[in-house]
Specification:
By secondary structure, this protein is mainly β. 14% of the residues lie in helices and 40% in strands.
Length: 356
């Protein structure tokens, strides 16, 4: 079971939808999905496109001004406040010495400043200088999104001039845990809407034009090329609690809280395949040696059903509860192993550095 569950948690290799180098096309992926509500694509875009921005960054190799010269990158962001706060991925702006933003319908770029960044959750907040009365996206409720729902991915794909690229697809899966370089992305929304370099930080929107995720990564095939129609977005409900700390110029403390267990939601299919007894919960698919989960005695195949006195019905619910605590907090934990129920106390730790 350990090997099989390990495959569930880490069965894909992904690459962040990396910033693109500079060079309109508007494309739609070849699928037959229908919008869940009687709104056409154009009406949804009319709500979201004006608040979707292109981001251009400049950095120096190795962060050293004496290096081989500036490195230019491009990504996407979405305006979330009328005074010009822009939500994007941390990896879009990490290490940048200059950040410029181009709003919809304009070819010129405006200067922007980094307010705060969270490398663990790959979220950053920048602010357009002097912005007033800007159009904004509507942040929806990603918990209500269902597999099979129709979505649009909007972004600055390949840094093409002329406006954002739009692709159409569905939610292929939820609560994905996939490795990306030195990090592990957890609780991700999987979509078959095409996500390309430069799309990072762009909105994944539902049929009502609400943002339910931020496009972040794509699965890679062999040899290192993007797999077809396998992209990942950070759920917006995971991002919302991080915003107050980012506005204050710091990484959210709770983003560093660490249990040390790879998790996957217990589904009816997993119950049938592996014989789990609980009706719902978060299945432990991996335990980091020496982590709080390891110290608490959690094992691969355990199903966590309660955390800090609150019922756990999914892996994302458990991650949310973990993020609501600080490193060092002692928390009651209940789990099922086989047919037996167990209870223990776990002392939460700090997420270890991923290294250079």
């Amino acid at each position: 079971m350990a090997a099989l569950l390990g495959g569930i948690v880490g069965g894909a290799i992904v690459a962040r939808a990396r910033p693109a180098s500079r060079t309109v096309v508007r494309t739609f992926s070849a699928n037959t999905s229908r919008l869940a509500k009687p709104q056409d694509v154009q009406s949804v875009l009319a709500r979201v496109e004006p608040a979707t921005v292109s981001i251009r960054t400049q950095a120096f190799q190795g962060g050293d001004l004496s290096g081989a010269g500036p490195v230019v990158g491009a990504g996407t962001g979405m305006i979330i406040t009328a005074d010009g706060e822009v939500l994007t991925n941390n990896h879009v702006v990490a290490g940048a010495t200059s950040i410029k933003v181009s709003v919809f319908g304009q070819s010129s770029f405006q200067d922007a400043d980094l307010l705060g960044a969270d490398p663990v959750d790959d979220v950053a907040l920048v602010k357009i200088r002097g912005a007033k009365a800007m159009p904004t996206v509507e942040l929806g409720d990603s918990d209500k999104a269902q597999v099979g729902d129709d979505v649009l991915a909007i972004g600055n794909a390949l840094a093409l001039a002329g406006g954002p690229t739009v692709t159409e697809g569905i939610i292929s899966a939820k609560d994905r845990t996939v490795p990306a370089g030195n990090e592990t992305l957890e609780g991700m929304i999987q979509t078959d809407a095409a996500i390309n370099p430069g799309n990072s930080g762009g909105p994944l929107v539902n049929a009502q034009g609400q943002v339910i995720g931020m496009n972040t990564a794509v699965a890679t095939g062999s040899p290192g090329e993007p797999a077809q129609n396998v992209g990942f977005a950070i759920p917006v409900n995971r991002i919302k609690p991080l915003l107050p700390a980012l506005r204050q110029g710091r990484a959210p403390l709770t983003s560093t809280t660490f249990l040390g267990a790879g998790l996957v939601t217990l589904t009816p299919e997993l119950r049938q395949q592996y014989g789990f007894t609980p009706d719902s919960g978060a299945v432990v698919g991996q335990v980091v040696p020496g982590s709080p989960a390891d110290s608490a005695g959690l094992q691969v195949g355990d199903v966590v059903t309660s955390f800090d006195g609150q019922a756990v019905d999914s892996a994302e619910k458990l991650r949310s509860l973990i993020r609501s605590h600080k490193p060092g907090d002692r928390v009651a934990l209940e789990f099922v192993r086989g047919a037996a129920r167990h209870g223990d106390t776990v002392v939460l730790g700090s997420r270890p550095s991923s290294g250079p």
